[in-house]
Amino acid sequence: MVTDLDLRTPAALADAERWTAHNYHPLPVVIADAEGAWVTDVDGRRYLDFLAGYSALNFGHRHPELINAAHAQLDRLTLTSRAFVHDQFADFCRGLAELCGKDLVLPMNTGAEAVETGIKVARKWGYQVKGVPDGQAEIIVADGNFHGRTTTIISFSTDTDARDDFGPYTPGFRIVPYGDLAALAGAITPNTVAVLLEPIQGEAGVLVPPAGYFAGVRKLCDDSNVLFIADEIQSGLGRTGKTFAIEHEAVVPDMYLLGKALGGGIVPVSAVAANRDVLGVLKPGEHGSTFGGNPLACAVGAAVVRLLATGEFQERSARLGARLHEGLNALVGKGVLAVRGRGLWAGVDIDPALMTGRQVVERLAARGVLAKDTHGSTIRLAPPLVVTEQDLDHAVAQLAAILA
Ligand SMILES: Cc1ncc(COP(=O)(O)O)c(C=O)c1O
Known about the structure:
By secondary structure, this protein is α/β, with parallel strands linked by helices. 37% of the residues lie in helices and 17% in strands. The chain binds pyridoxal-5'-phosphate (PLP).
């Protein structure tokens, strides 16, 4: 008979707690291996992964084509630095540029680095192309944004946990309410170089702005010679049923910021994609990263682009997402206050009188479904796009059982 004393989870959790900074509050699950939408912990318990690495695992754990691409590259060449060119570089960049419909790509590693790159490019464009006086460039962002954790990025966060005690803060950002076009119009000045927005605010609780908002943003940017930067790091690459979430609004940004799923859940790969008149402002020596665009990253990233080019994952996300949202909407009034999102991405507001989001995700984990809470009583569901209909129905049934 297996007793609690035989389980490996408690010791593994204690060890992790003992040796690491406590900048996360993970669920008490220690994962050992995974395949597709399922993970297995060190004690052999299986869970459905309904977080998918915050959308870094859009293609599931260990997608065979991505793993094959990584293995093949590991056996040939892993790193050169950008001091030299390697034979995987152009292929990845061409594929990604074509997927984005843009002239050029600048590869980096983490999402935050892509955001930092976008900020630097927009500022330089502002000074060199738009003619903004030196040091005066302004970028407009939204209330409730999440763009990463660097000191500049948290300077324009409105989340006190993310921002407090990390000053002094980088100037040059104006914050307006998300989804409010009049506020955005009022914030644009002759020194505005860019508007930086998430097409759907993930961390804020999967908030979808009012229909027509992004068409309005596009027009305001065009009218004022301002760049529109879409942070598609979490919302992009199939998550919402289209390659980019902004496509739902039939809007094309000047710059795409990409990350997470671009690395296939294997390596950190991020990128900025834009046309030559924007990304072309950078000259040698002005920006870079030792690991950015490395051969392993490019081999995996190119395989990701090939998967997305089939359209299969976008189609799955749209079709299965409709099923997920139908199942979740049936819980409104039964412990759920509201459901938001698009495709295989949902923010679910739990009735706070019933329990907190944390309590919900702990109970879901005990029933074999891994998800993440945010902002008190909201939970986020974002399974890998390879999830099956049965898996979706199973997860929704577990949530229903908890709330019953
Ligand atoms: C919209 C968005 N932008 C940027 C980031 C930062 O990405 P990373 O954690 O890879 O730095 C995230 C991460 O959650 C995100 O959701």
